[in-house]
Amino acid sequence: MKRKPLSPETRKQLLVAQGNEITEYHIYKQLAKKQRDPHNAEVLSRIADDEYKHCEIWKEYTETEVAPSKWKIWKFYWIARIFGITFGIKLMEKGEESAQVNYNEIANEVPEAKIISKEENGHENQLIDLLEEDKLKYIGSIVLGLNDALVEILGTLAGLTFALQNTRLVALAGIITGLAGALSMSSSEYLSTKSEGRHDGAMKSAIFTGIAYIFAVVFLVVPYLIFTSPFVALIVAVIDSVLVVFLYSYYISIANDQPFRKRFWEMVILSTVVGLISFGLGYVVRIIFGIEV
Hints:
By secondary structure, this protein is mainly α. Helix content is 82%, strand content 0%. It has twelve helices and no strands. Helix 1 (8-33) crosses helix 3, helix 2 (38-62) packs antiparallel against helix 6 and helix 8 (139-164) packs antiparallel against helix 9 (167-195). The longest helix has 30 residues, at 260-289. It starts with 7 loop residues before the first helix and ends with a helix.
């Protein structure tokens, strides 16, 4: 039975959808081959098969072979490898949501569109939730390390900036405080995790917390090693802290489907308030003790 010709708009949307499906098929297939965990490899292969099946359905209507986007394959493959497969996949899926493909509109001419839409929104999301990886399993530890470092170290640097007004001394104090804080946070996270009965993940939680803490410390202290003016260094450190908050808030919002703006502004406001209070304390200490460096 010959199908009724598609309207130009529907055909255009189908070609976009077909291109997305075949591109994502190759991405999932490549990621599946690189997985050491057989469970994750199986899940990714199942999603890839779904994408290929959908592509073939669209091709029956468009009667056109659509080439995958090599740029997207390369981009999302490496994003997933570096930042985690869950983050990479969900970032890719969000891009697909904005690809101007209206399944309800297509369904008027292509009955399978509703079924595919349900599979895209339901079945594949369920499969993605089955993925297991350390980056998400220990996201709480990473957030703990970053949050504590940004608040504590930024506050310390702000206070010392006015009290000492010497970039080298402030950087030295920041590094010492940061390393001590990283060790303290790691050991606390280790003991806390073990007390909750999660003995297997205690060491990894501690390591992730410590690494995140040190990462934030480096970002905040580096300006004091570059600039001669302590106040310029402090401004750059504050900008760095906002950048770090933005990056990890965005990561969590994508990977864990959490609201971005609320988390971002909460952390920025908290860090700023603590920094201002510490800056004021540094001024008071300098006046009271008559510190001149």
